[in-house]
UniProtKB/TrEMBL annotation, chain A:
It comes from Sediminivirga luteola. SUPFAM superfamilies: MetI-like (SSF161098). Residues 93-282 form the ABC transmembrane type-1 domain. The lineage of its organism: Bacteria, Bacillati, Actinomycetota, Actinomycetes, Micrococcales. This is Peptide ABC transporter permease. Keywords: Cell membrane, Membrane, Transmembrane, Transmembrane helix, Transport. The keyword Disulfide bond does not apply.
From TrEMBL, chain B:
InterPro entries: Peptide/Ni-bd, SBP_5, SBP_5_dom, TAT_signal. It comes from Sediminivirga luteola. The keyword Signal applies. It holds the Pfam family SBP_bac_5. This is Peptide ABC transporter.
């Protein structure tokens, strides 16, 4: 979508942009952004107050309605157990997103500490941190997560920790690079010149600025981490049945694509929409941060 | 209960439609009919579910036995109705107490390596399964058969204890007769190559892909009732497709000539279809059953076990989890030779009785989530299951829903296959769900007899750890009754007794359904351990 809008912008040429008229591309972009924010808001409501938007029980099964197509009582159909797919998507939002959010928080916290350390500590410490980081980064994220689960066992908490740890290397790199850049910036030199203590400079001036890009990568990373979490549940390594979770819903329904596509397509759609929304919103934040600079 | 299921629906999702179109256009190519007359030549590609871990059928009754039948013959042929026909043995005698068997062998049989089949050769096979070094876990090994050569073609077998089902056990592919030279000189090689007397010769096993057999031109000893001579096919190629949907697709696309283990959800559709030839056999034995660990709380109390037995809507669970394809069963599947037709003590669905039993057992308080408690402890149990098996998972999720109604918490624990067998070995479970099939009532002894409990050295097949003297006595009587009717009588009494002891909740009998392209003919059944028999199969492309 963003590729298409850029294209429109380019063909119209830079002349229009200079005149200050908002092009069709920018309007589309804004509509998409608002839609994405709306979707993320909706998912937030799903996760926080699931009972607000559905009146059914995610565990209630009707044995006479196995893989029933979408209808008025079951707007998105029923699954292979006879449960309402819509209700399970709504109730599954919390566990699905909890995996992603939990993983991002873990990567974020540990990655920031390690990144600041690598950027500020003596060269040999930095060497050790970064070489260890390179080894971690050499493994594909999901593979590393599966390795961690193989060692410590499955389940939702372990899955979040596994994805969180697997995601650390990326954060370390960005934070370290940003720290190295900022520590030589004039305003830091000025702060030192004013006689502020090292701790004050670190806490009040260096860290907040180095952390700015973190907002972007955390938002962008949220989609990826959620997808990885759903992937682990798809493989049976995350949430245990019968708890609703998008990845395991997809996994259970995949055998019935020919008999009841809705049981697999709608959880997949929810996941796609969530990941796409976080990516689009993340890119937007990234642009505005860059624009300010 | 009726289940409404879409027969064949237009798939609104564009991607799925495209996929379906590809599948249909690929599958529609062949229209040749197999005809009634066998045709010589050609290869048959069969899609199986599980790839064997190893091939040697004498070591275990696992996956290997599903794919070695074309290479190995047995001493007798099981007709599936309690009678037997000659195969490698021309005739045999059974002692009155069913503990002593004498076999008179054919004198014209040679193994694929040129070895001649005689009493010594068959003795080598019995010796192999009883040798503790070979760690054979099969039913035959459990009987400790001691073989003695009488003359060149006569062999006597003495069992440790009487076993009236012995002929069924040795008719199965897991007692296929192997070359004595291979057994004695190169037992290591048995894991990945087999030398038997069968109509097909082992050719190649490419792990992860396929297992190929080629025709044995010298074959002339097919079981009674067959044409007897060499097979019609030039070769058989097994491919292994564990994913249900993928295996089914192999039939639709024509990638496989024949697909075994049609998944339950497509069972009826395949049987009704004019596009394929298909056949289905309801597997005998103990079937798909929830074994309750009687050594642990809460199932150490017979009332709790009975409560689960009567508190689960077995009909409803089975109908929905198997898409109506498989029938609900009692402690034995109806197709088992020793199944009691006029069973009086059938398992009735009675939630009131179940609740009453749980109250009596002391689980009469409820916690905030509605589960029953006793002295502040929740009525709860754990079911480890192999998450790759979707039918198991669906069934267990339905069980969980019904148990919840009773205030009984059933936690499902998906575990990898390796951990599953380890837990089974250690008795580390509340409920163990398993599917067991053997064409004899003797399976009741294997599953519920106290001498089949794990003892730390051997893996016992008695997963509920039940130990009941009355049942043990009945099973022992049945096993020493050479007369089939007398035997069935004792097994019948055992079937009447089992609901009282409630060591397990039987759920469904499983149908083994295969489907083949229309140009495939002559596929039969081997009834000893029901599976398609490919000796007389042919392809007419």
């Amino acid at each position: 979508m963003s590729a298409a809008t850029t294209l429109i912008g380019e063909t119209r040429g830079p002349a229009r942009r200079r005149t200050g008229v908002i092009g069709a591309g920018a309007i589309t972009e804004r509509i998409i952004l608002v839609a994405c924010l709306g979707l993320l808001g909706l998912f937030a409501v799903f996760a926080l107050w699931p009972s607000l938007l559905t009146w059914q029980d995610p565990f209630a099964a009707d044995r006479s309605l196995i893989l029933a197509p979408p209808s008025l009582t079951h707007p998105l159909g029923t699954d292979e157990i006879g449960r309402d797919v819509y209700t399970r998507i709504v109730y599954g939002t919390r566990s699905t997103l909890a995996l992603g959010v939990g993983a991002v928080l873990i990567s974020l916290t540990l990655g920031t500490v390690a990144g600041l350390l690598a950027g500020l500590a003596p060269r040999w410490v930095s060497m050790i941190v970064m070489r260890g980081n390179d080894i971690g980064a050499a493994f594909p994220e999901l593979l590393l997560a599966i390795l961690i689960i193989a060692l410590f066992g499955g389940g939702p908490v372990n899955a979040a920790i596994a994805i969180g740890i697997a995601g650390i290397p990326y954060y370390v790199r960005v934070i370290r690079a940003e720290t190295l850049k900022i520590r030589r910036a004039t305003f830091i030199e000025a702060a030192h010149g004013l006689g502020l203590s090292r701790t004050t400079v670190l806490v009040r001036h260096l860290a907040p600025n180095a952390l700015r890009p973190v907002v972007v990568i955390a938002t962008l990373g949220l989609g990826g981490a959620t997808l990885a979490g759903a992937g682990l549940s798809f493989l049976g390594l995350g949430t245990a049945p019968p708890a609703p979770e998008w990845g395991s819903m997809l996994s259970n329904a995949r055998s019935f694509l020919g008999l009841g596509w809705w049981a697999a397509v709608f959880p997949g759609l929810a996941l796609t929409l969530f990941v796409a929304s976080t990516t689009i919103v993340g890119r937007r934040i990234q642009k505005s941060l860059e624009g300010r600079r | 209960m009726r289940i409404t299921l879409p027969r064949r629906r237009l798939l609104p999702a564009a991607a799925t439609t495209a996929l379906a179109l590809v599948l249909v256009s690929c599958g529609g190519g062949q229209s040749a009919d197999a005809g009634d007359e066998p045709v010589e030549g050609g290869q048959l590609t069969v899609a199986l579910r599980d790839e064997p871990v190893q091939l040697n059928p004498l070591v275990d009754q696992g996956s290997g036995a599903h794919s070695v039948r074309p290479v190995v013959d047995s001493l007798v042929w099981d007709n599936g109705d309690g009678t037997y026909s000659p195969w490698l043995a021309e005739s045999w005698e059974v002692s009155e107490d069913a503990s002593h068997y004498t076999f008179h062998l054919r004198d014209d049989v040679t193994f694929h390596d040129g070895e001649h089949l005689d009493a010594e050769a068959v003795k080598a096979n019995f010796d192999f399964v009883v040798d503790p070094e070979n760690r054979s876990t099969g039913s035959t090994a459990k009987l400790q058969p001691e073989a003695t050569v009488v003359d060149e073609y006569t062999l006597e077998v003495q069992l440790e204890a009487p076993e009236s089902s012995f002929l069924t056990l040795i008719a199965a592919p897991y007692f296929g007769i192997l070359s004595p030279r291979q057994l004695q000189d190169d037992p290591e090689s048995l894991a990945d190559t087999l030398i038997g007397t069968g109509p097909f010769v082992f050719d190649e096993w490419v792990r992860g892909q396929s297992l190929t057999y080629t025709k044995n031109e010298d074959y002339a000893w097919g079981p009674e009732g067959t044409h007897g001579g060499p097979a019609y096919l030039d070769s058989i190629r097994y491919v292994f497709l564990p994913e249900d949907q993928t295996r089914y697709n192999a039939l639709l696309t024509g990638e496989a000539d024949m697909v075994d283990y049609i998944p339950a959800e497509y069972n009826q559709e395949v049987l009704d279809s004019d596009e394929y030839t298909s056949d289905s056999f309801l597997l005998p034995g103990v079937g798909y059953t929830l074994h309750l660990n009687t050594r642990q709380e809460p199932f150490d109390d017979v009332r709790v076990r009975q409560a689960l037995l009567h508190g689960l809507d077995r009909e409803g669970i089975v109908a929905s989890s198997t898409f109506g394809a498989y029938p609900v069963q009692e402690y034995l599947a109806e197709t088992t030779p020793d199944f009691k037709q006029d069973l009086e003590n059938t398992i009735e669905f009675d939630p009131d009785l179940a609740n009453q039993l749980l109250d009596e057992a002391g689980w009469d308080e409820r916690d905030s989530e509605g589960y029953r408690t006793r002295d502040g402890e929740r009525l709860s149990t754990e079911v480890p299951f192999n998450s790759e098996n979707q039918l198991d998972q669906r069934t267990l999720e339905q069980v969980q829903i019904d148990a919840r109604e009773l205030g009984f918490e059933v936690n499902l624990l998906p575990v990898p296959a390796a951990e599953h067998s380890e837990r089974m070995y250690n008795g580390d479970y509340g409920i163990l769900a398993s599917f067991q099939s053997e064409s004899t009532g003797m399976q009741l002894w294997r599953l519920y007899g106290s001498d089949n409990v794990s003892d730390g050295e051997t893996i016992g097949s008695n997963a509920s750890f039940l130990s009941d003297p009355e049942l043990d006595e009945l099973l022992a009587q049945a096993r020493q009754s050479a007369d089939p009717e007398e035997r069935a009588g004792y097994y019948g009494q055992a079937q009447e007794l089992l609901p009282e002891l409630a060591p397990a909740v039987p759920l469904h009998s499983r149908a083994r359904t295969f489907a083949a392209q229309p140009y495939v003919g002559g596929v039969g059944w081997d009834y000893a351990w029901p599976q398609p028999y490919l000796y007389e199969a042919w392809v007419n492309r």
